[in-house]
Amino acid sequence: MKTYVICSGGLDSVSLAHKVAAENELAGLISFDYGQRHSKELDFARAAADRLGVPFHLIDMRSIGAHLSGSALTDDVEVPDGHYAEETMKTTVVPNRNAIMLAVAFGLAAAQKADAVATAVHGGDHFIYPDCRPAFTEAFDAMQKQALDGYADVTLYTPFVREPKSAIVTEGARHGTPFAETWSCYKGGDKHCGRCGTCVERREAFHLAGVEDPTDYADPDFWLEAVARGAK
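User: That's the sequence. What structure does it adopt?
Assistant: Structure tokens below.
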């Protein structure tokens, strides 16, 4: 399948890009600047496209993101520390973000005569993010079949939607993903903080997968405390 991958520059989406490049035809990477405080992730997405030798499409969504207020990722709200299982992580929700991004990506894929759009939503996202759950991805795929009926046939590819993040690390390692060249931290500092939800989840995923984590964390051991607290 000729497939476009929505790529933030994070571990999940870059691993997906390498998987698609190995198993299908990677048509290009699509990234979105929605005013996220960790916009440095986009540099990692562009680098992934260069490394894989495919076009990089950066969609400027900053004017839209400015209206999606109240999130710690786009607004003057502190990014919480801890595990995704904690209630405080709901402040990192950007309302309808994936629905908006997918709609744009499907339009681009249809215009370029592609067969699929791939996104790296996974099982670990389900608790916090409603637009990462199987019910959403299945409904969105069905909606797009109607939206493009008679014009294009584009499928939503979500190989990790029922898998834990550790499975993404395993799959990424299998396809030679350079994990050190991915960015996850929501705080967007000089190095991964090691304390925000996505840093904790990243560190835990490498541990569960039994794969060495090359990431430089400001607080490399906080994840143990966060995981223990989140499991209660």
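The longest helix spans residues 97-111.
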